[in-house]
Write a structure and sequence with these properties.
Elements: H1 6-19, H2 27-34, H3 38-54, E1 58-63, E2 69-74, H4 78-92, E3 98-99, E4 103-104, H5 107-110, H6 113-127, E5 134-138, H7 143-153, E6 157-160, E7 171-177, E8 184-190, E9 199-207, H8 211-222, E10 226-236, E11 247-257, E12 262-267
Parallel strand pairs: 5-6, 5-9, 9-10, 10-11
Antiparallel strand pairs: 1-2, 3-4, 7-8, 11-12
Helix pairs in contact: 1-3, 2-3, 6-7
Length: about 270
């Protein structure tokens, strides 16, 4: 391979790193790919690091040691994350989103990739200290959000099913009671999906009383996994006491008035 110019290397390195957030690349891999010395690659990475930090797009992290390397840690600045959540709250408060029963239509936002990429990065930044091994969600609407969170963490996504599929082999199933409607429902997980002792982070799009989240916690524990945290995009302010504790909500839904078409939904901000 011919020598690659610095500008070309920087562009390609940025693309490779950003496509796989938190994935650890060895310097040897980049050195062989671009036919350049490791010292040259380090200079390129320093340029990318400075640019990322300057524009609040994340950072390049170096891991020392024989098994070390470099990885891109995405992350919106506190101000940009708050701006994103405030914008989502504004859009969710639009009068035509109110659905009978006090719910909000959210599917168009949940299935908009560039929005969910950013929300996933917010979850990763706020919950990285939990050090999960897997991201877990329940079908169906929360999948895009959980998938983008898994991408930000560079972790596998496990989807809990409402029911079971023969094509996934033997599964563990439980019955759970929804917190809001008090209905009994079933969810299942293939036995081979989660190894015993795995740390899982539950991600979902909406929480009212927490019945579904409670079911996922119980199901994870049934297969021997440990739930290290729960993140939801929107949680209702009432009931105040959910069926799960220690969850992170990015938006709080305080009230939906179907008659006046007024929705009170507020972002959970990190800055004043």
């Amino acid at each position: 391979m011919d020598k690659v110019r610095k500008m070309e290397r920087v562009a390609a390195l940025t693309k490779l790193l950003a496509d796989r957030p938190r994935h650890l690349f060895s310097l040897t891999y980049f050195s062989e790919l671009f036919n350049a010395a490791k010292s040259t690659i380090c200079e390129d990475l320093n340029t990318i690091r400075e640019t990322m930090v300057h524009f609040g797009l994340g950072t390049i992290e170096t891991v020392a040691g024989a098994a070390g390397g470099v990885r891109f840690i995405p992350g919106l600045s506190g101000r940009e994350a708050d701006k994103l959540l405030s914008d989502l709250a504004r859009r969710l408060a639009e009068p035509d989103r109110i659905i009978p029963g006090g719910f909000l239509y959210m599917s168009d936002l949940l299935f908009t990739p560039h929005l969910m990429v950013k929300v996933g990065e917010v979850f990763m930044e706020r919950l990285a200290h939990l050090s999960p091994d897997y991201i877990v969600t329940v079908e169906t609407k929360g999948i895009p959000l959980a998938f983008m969170t898994a991408r930000a963490f560079d972790l596998p996504l496990i989807t809990v099913r409402r029911g079971s599929k023969v094509t996934e082999g033997s599964a563990v199933g439980i019955n759970y009671v929804t917190g809001s409607s008090k209905r009994i429902q079933t969810m299942s997980l293939p036995k081979r999906a989660l190894p015993a002792g795995a740390r899982v982070l539950i991600i979902d799009d909406f929480m009212k009383a927490g019945g579904t989240a409670r079911g996922m916690v119980d199901l994870a524990q049934e297969v021997g996994a440990e739930v290290c945290g729960i993140g939801v995009l929107v949680a209702t302010a009432q009931p105040e006491h959910k069926l799960v504790d220690d969850y992170l909500a990015l938006l709080i839904l305080h009230d939906v008035d179907e008659h006046t078409k007024v929705t009170d939904i507020r972002p959970v901000l990190t800055t004043g």
